[in-house]
Amino acid sequence: PTLTIQTSAPPATMKLLLTTALLSGLAAAHWDSHPHQKKLHAHKKSSSKGKTATTYDGELTMPDPWTGSAYSYDGDTGPSEWPTLFPDACAGASQSPIYLDPSTASSGNLNSRPIAFNYTNPYPVSITNKGNHIDLTFGNDSSLNTIEITTQSGVRKTFKLLGCHFHSHSEHAIAGMSAVIEAHWVHQADDGELAVLGTMYEKGDEPNAFFPDELEGFLPIGYKQKFTFNSPSPYFSDFTAIFPSSQSHYTYPGSLTTPPCTEGLSWNVFAESVKLSSQQYYHLLKINEHFLNYANRAGATNRPLQQLNGRTPTYWN
Predict the structure, then answer these.
(1) Rounded CA gap, 12 and 116, in Å?
(2) Is the dihedral of CA 209, 99, 195, 155 positive or negative?
């Protein structure tokens, strides 16, 4: 597959546009941080089949860390101020995230409400640094990557995959526990309704097949920098590995967890977590180091739990 690195830096700043061929996703790239400059060191790495990736050594001069958000997770633009800064929705009565617990949720039969996955062609896969989070998008035709769920109104509906992003620590809490990483898989129906799958990630013993084990080299750390996989790769395509084997999940009506905090979402939060290797786990967390002007003082990018305001989640098991 071809990995293309893009940047928003102007021509005078951009010293090198680096395009490298990855054979079976084998190239490992490591970033060294500097306040104003990021250097990419690429190395040759052979596979068990004897194939060697063609790699390059180069240097990218990137813009300074992103600081232009209208909101953050701390201080005058932190979550406690969002209802004032964004009163149209962030002050609403159906906000997310919330606390989830089987002892207080209503119960439902999972067999009557399965989540049907139909992810058929994720390519091209793009991984973009949005300045406040890493965003994954899949394919040029979203109709090829869909889920079918039952909405809060009881209607069975198809939603197209828009993308995925990560929060640390987790935003939802389940049965008194929080995970270190939570992913939000955002989907949209043809009528504009949004549905989100929430998945918790924890440290395990084995690499997760969805991610490369050398995950750090695949995460763009420069603002608006993008990595794109244009053709099939061993990575970012095994969706059976990135979601729990059990579909037990919580549903409730909620909102986006970041401004504008739009309400009317169908939330589907898996009860079980997914395991990552120690290396994948720490590499995914490490990207938060580059969002310190956006995260709170603890380096976290999670909105605090919101009031239920009469809502009762349902636990489907």
Answers:
(1) 48
(2) positive
Are 313 and 105 spatial neighbours (Cβ–Cβ below 8 Å)? Answer: yes
Tokens at residue 79, please? 């979550």
Q: What is the pTM of this model?
A: 0.78
Q: How confident is the model at residue 18 (pLDDT cuts 50, 70, 90)?
A: very low
Check if the beta carbon of residue 226 is closer than 8 Å to that of residue 291.
Answer: no
Torsions phi, psi of 88, nearest 5?
-60, -35
**Model confidence over 282-311: pLDDT tens digits?**
888 877 666 666 777 777 889 999 999 999
Identify which of 104, 134, 4, 125 has the alpha carbon closest to the alpha carbon of residue 60: 4
Long-range contacts of 109-114 (CB under 8 A, 24+ apart): 109/316, 109/317, 110/247, 110/248, 110/249, 110/316, 110/317, 113/149, 113/150, 113/251, 113/316, 114/247
Distance of CA 16 to the CA centre of its chain: 28
Q: Is residue 98 classed as helix, strand or coil in its secondary structure?
A: coil
Instruction: Decide: 105 and 312 in contact? Cβ < 8 Å.
Output: yes
